[in-house]
Write a sequence for this structure.
């Protein structure tokens, strides 16, 4: 592979991924959408999801325009002569657009795939898996494809505008600086999608449960509950679009920061070395391209058979993609890096020569760490494993001990993932300096297409189960969707661990990029009290951010509760239907024909769209405060002291990753403890299990915002803060050290 | 004040404090111990507390002997020619002994003061306050006195052994190095008392409640419950001895680290400056002496009147002591520091001249920060304030929302205290470099005698209420002890905030001392991946430590539950008495005379001492694992890389302080939310308040280990790790950089 060819290869492979995404999306659309009732339910969910996206993107457009103007104006003071002011804003807008478009495509397909998965479950387990996974793979391919198309396309255009950038040096740094606007754009969407989506999904969930299940006494997911659709929409909004935007941001962040670190590797070395300088800049793009191709090949290995374990099918695809990625990366690096190795000047490691295999090892260590963190997450949150077992045991003595044990499991579960991440950092650094750490982050993320496909499969399978429930499908069909859904819980847990791990490494890479952009003027020696203060404040921010997200869920849920109560009160057809449904539920039997008559008469009378609108506006409104905090913190601290800002970046990352793992795993473990008690209950339900289940439900309710709102939002916080720092670095440099 | 006079002044003032402590203790003993029943209850509690101390000190003796031998042997390899090997072990043993003795004296008086406070409450509110506060002040004076006697005495002896140390330079460093063993001794006791005591108090509490209240249906604190005494003992063990050992450790750590930092200030400067060198070494001792005198004067201002607010009485004493301390410090510094200021060489600030007022300002900033953190803690945890109000509100929708809101309040409450600590760090550093930060820690702790007196007052008042309850005293007397107890809750909350703040600053000072002892060979630049990994692991440790402490409480409580159940089953007199008590309780009435007959027949049949023994051995056994982790982590990491160890120290401190504030304030807020609902309930108790109260009880049960076990234990973790690092610094230096 010739180095400059990579520049044009990137958009080509991106287009390939997008074409394949379209093929898969078309295939999903062609599948049987099920009977009339299933289609109606599907339409409600799809319309609700799109309504959220529309409102979100409307707010986003204003945000993006304002920030773009600020970027264009503020950067002018730093490098006016180079006319980069407008270009960085262009990168920013395009980054936001690509991430938003990927979210739109992914969600469109996911909301089509849910009913079709339920319909395919009538035929067989593998058929249903194929539809659900195809739906998820569209999200994965759209994210990888649009990320590479946008970033690669912009890079190619900017290289034509600044041809000297091809030789490395200042022009390359300039181009990469412009390009980093793309990263900020991706972060903006991630903030809205992940934080807003996280608030949405849990506000709808809590609102639907509290009024429907607790107050009105009707079953979960019942069509009479106006918030039911919002609840299902929430799964898509939070777990499909939110997760997609989160990983899109990490992916872009890892690529750009490794390019920036690669570009500065050769600064200060003799001109003779400069020729090899661009290898390190192109390499991240090459690894990304290989990851996409490996993922697409991996897709073909995802299958299962009737009675088989869908998890194994998903694992096979992921592991094959990982293996191919490593092999491809080894080959590419061997081609691009001279046999004698590259002599580089690393900010920390100093002047040193790295061989091709060392760089390959750095990439592989990131991938290995990603897999290890995922598997550890699974261990701590899976049913029938020891950690969840201790929570089940503690449920015997009530809700309080369930909560304490769940918190203990979550806090304890930080140890091994942190040690894995530490091992990856040290080995990547020993292999290839700071650049190695960024390449490790990229190695973790390079197979994003199949990783995200597996993640997005989860909520599709979950929705399919909901549709099957609402459409009153047969027991054997429900058994199939349940099986897919159970696997979805595991992939969701693994996906969360993976998202946290990659966010941590990406944030550290972005921090390293920030340091190099500050041209060595920033020292983050923790013995310097200003750095220490930055570390302390950074350490505190995820706590405050989590608190804000948790409170936001509570407040948004209140709005939802009011609305559902209003509809129950004001819509005349609902009252008799609710009474009939509640009567059947309280007597623990299916509704009689007469009752069903009354219930069906109220079909479609509940105003789902109004609940969707309420969840949407509440979510978007409540994410403003934490969002503003995340954006302004690095700016304010950076104006006070750049060393303090450096400390802030490190502090927020290390504390954020611990807090995110703790919250995600506590939440996941509580969820599965509840499930395990329920499963045991099928065999021998009694008073004790009833009480245990109640305690576990309390645990799960506490865990919901932990694992779906505040926990995942921390990923965004730590990346957004470091992206903002990286973007304002030239400005801060000019301000504190003269231009 | 002449500088070398300080050396002899320290033991003198220490003796003064101890004599005054003895006078106060004798006064407490002379008070009316109440009627026969009160005296019996008091004896049970006192015996239980002593039984715990005896067992604890027996285990400790083994631990201290083993560590002393290791210290004597291992340090031999570093400085064998200077015969310091044995001396550091001597310092260590004496440090452990002084802290243990302070705990013994404090607890002896506290367990005598509880019944006497209840008895004095028969006379009046001020009388009861005087007894309770006198009991607490013995603890405060014993800690300050024994700390200064041990440390000051050793320093005087070592100065005589190494007379050249009086001139500054290497001999001074050597003496201070030997002296720092005293700090490790104090830390060992703190580990056992705070972690073991924290496990004890909550295991007894949970065990007593679950079997007594829930299973047997008898009231809280009922004499028939064999775990009742263990529960009351726990308050003394955890909140008197544990808190005392915690602050003893901080106090010693702050004094020694500022002495070490002061000694290295003049290294590298011309000999002409060396004459002023010892000022900075003596100054911490002078500030400590002034703080003790100021505290003793403050004691005289603690009083209240019938119908008055005891809180105001306590505050008056504390504020007057603080004011006197600042005035005294200003005077002392003005005398000891030349008018032209001192020219110093700070590890971070470089060569710089500091005036006397700058050093005074550093001390004052620490005191101000301590007060501010305390007041903020009060705001976040007090009834009728907004944070607790939001938890009360969330209790309307059940236990899950109560837990979520409580966690949010705790996480949110980290922000302002962290910013206060940051402000103190920056201003202290700007005033007087790294030495300034250590002096700020000392400023916060210098009035420890009165601070700790106020802290220890809380559990005494709490116990007095318990004694009044068990001895069935009149309603107006109960109202007085309740009032004292309510104030005790507030002082406990403030004390916790204060302990966390001072632990954070002390740990940072100890870290700075570690860095200076490593003679500039350790760089904690967070851009160095090894430092980063140290930060990450450090950040994770408090999470794991908290999880271990929480799980330990659960396991220890199980042992207690088994024992109480066994006694109920096997002791023949208990069954009929329990039935009678339960019948009265379930019918919500006082027992009839006939029932009382049966109940009193069982008096003294419950085997309290066995429950005390079980709580004791469970607590001491369960603290081994977290203790071992705290001691070995810095050793293992230090052997791998000293830079990583530097990162570890910073990481564990910044994450530990956030996690400790979060847990302490969540726990405190839940406790008071329960209290507020109960208080409202007196006016208009109904089904809704009943449900809210249940939810709040769940919150409080979760909060119990948070605020009394895992939260406070983190203080010990962060200090112990940095003390161990400081102690092994010469060894690590020899190992990594040659001797």
């Amino acid at each position: 592979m010739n180095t400059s060819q990579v520049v044009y290869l990137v958009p080509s492979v991106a287009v390939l991924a997008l074409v394949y995404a379209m093929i898969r999306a078309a295939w999903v659309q062609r599948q049987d959408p099920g009977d009339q009732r299933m289609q109606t339910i599907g339409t409600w969910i799809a319309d609700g999801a799109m309504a959220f996206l529309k409102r979100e993107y409307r707010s986003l457009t204003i945000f993006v325009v304002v920030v773009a103007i600020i970027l264009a104006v503020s950067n002018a003071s730093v490098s006016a002569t180079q006319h980069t002011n407008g270009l960085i804003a262009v990168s920013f807008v395009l980054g936001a657009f690509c991430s938003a478009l990927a979210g739109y495509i992914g969600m469109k397909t996911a909301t089509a795939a849910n009913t079709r998965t339920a319909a395919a479950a009538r035929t067989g387990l593998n058929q249903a898996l194929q539809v659900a996974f195809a739906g998820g793979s569209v999200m994965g391919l759209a994210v990888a494809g649009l990320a590479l198309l946008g970033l690669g396309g912009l890079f190619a255009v900017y290289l034509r505008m600044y041809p000297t950038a091809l030789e490395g040096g200042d022009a390359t740094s300039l181009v990469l600086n412009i390009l980093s606007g793309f990263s900020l754009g991706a972060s903006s969407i991630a903030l809205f999608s992940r934080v807003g989506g996280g608030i949405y999904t849990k506000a709808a969930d809590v609102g639907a449960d509290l009024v429907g299940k607790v107050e009105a006494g009707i079953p979960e997911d019942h069509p009479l509950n106006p918030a039911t659709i919002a609840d299902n929409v929430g799964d898509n909004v939070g777990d499909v679009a939110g997760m997609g935007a989160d990983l899109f941001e990490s992916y872009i962040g890892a690529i750009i920061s490794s390019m920036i670190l690669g570009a500065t590797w050769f600064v200060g070395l003799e001109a003779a070395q400069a020729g090899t300088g661009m290898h390190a800049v192109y390499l991240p793009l090459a690894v990304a391209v290989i990851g996409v191709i490996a993922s697409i090949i991996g897709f073909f290995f995802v299958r299962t058979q009737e009675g088989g374990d869908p998890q194994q099918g998903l694992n096979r695809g992921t592991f094959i993609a990982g293996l191919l990625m490593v092999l491809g990366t080894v080959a590419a690096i061997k081609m691009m890096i001279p046999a004698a190795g590259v002599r580089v000047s690393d900010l920390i490691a100093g002047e040193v020569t790295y061989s091709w295999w060392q760089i390959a090892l750095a990439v592989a260590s990131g991938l290995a760490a990603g897999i290890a963190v995922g598997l550890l997450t699974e261990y701590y949150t899976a049913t029938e494993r020891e950690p969840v077992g201790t929570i089940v045991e503690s449920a015997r003595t009530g809700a309080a001990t369930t909560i304490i044990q769940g918190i203990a499991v979550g806090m304890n579960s930080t140890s091994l993932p942190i040690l894995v991440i530490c091992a990856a950092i040290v080995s990547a650094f020993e292999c290839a300096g700071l650049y190695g750490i960024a390449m490790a982050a990229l190695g973790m993320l390079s197979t994003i297409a199949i990783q995200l496909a597996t993640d997005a499969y989860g909520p599709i399978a979950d929705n399919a189960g909901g549709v099957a429930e609402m459409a009153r499908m047969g027991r054997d069909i429900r058994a199939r969707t349940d099986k897919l859904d159970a696997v979805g819980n595991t992939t969701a847990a693994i996906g969360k661990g993976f998202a946290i791990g990659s966010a941590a490494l990406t944030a550290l890479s972005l921090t390293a990029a920030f340091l190099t952009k500050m041209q060595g003027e920033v020292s983050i020696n923790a013995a310097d009290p200003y750095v220490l203060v930055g570390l302390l404040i950074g350490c505190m921010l995820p706590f405050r951010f989590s608190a804000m997200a948790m409170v936001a869920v509570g407040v948004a849920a209140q709005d939802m509760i009011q609305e559902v109560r209003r509809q129950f009160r004001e819509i005349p057809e609902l009252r008799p239907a609710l009474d009939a449904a509640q009567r059947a539920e309280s007597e623990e039997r299916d509704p009689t024909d007469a009752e069903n008559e009354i219930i069906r008469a109220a079909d479609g009378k509940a105003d789902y769209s109004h609940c969707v609108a309420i969840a949407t506006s509440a979510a978007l409104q409540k994410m403003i405060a934490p969002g503003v905090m995340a954006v302004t913190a690095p700016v304010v601290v950076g104006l006070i002291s750049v060393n303090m800002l450096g400390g802030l970046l490190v502090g927020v990352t290390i504390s954020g990753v611990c807090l995110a793992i703790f919250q995600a795993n506590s939440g996941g473990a509580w969820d599965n403890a509840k499930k395990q008690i329920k499963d045991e209950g099928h065999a021998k339900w009694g008073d004790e299990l009833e009480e245990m289940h109640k305690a576990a439900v309390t645990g799960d309710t506490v865990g919901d915002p932990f694992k779906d709102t505040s926990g995942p939002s921390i990923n965004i916080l730590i990346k957004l803060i470091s992206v903002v720092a990286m973007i304002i670095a030239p400005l801060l440099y000019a301000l504190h050290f003269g231009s």
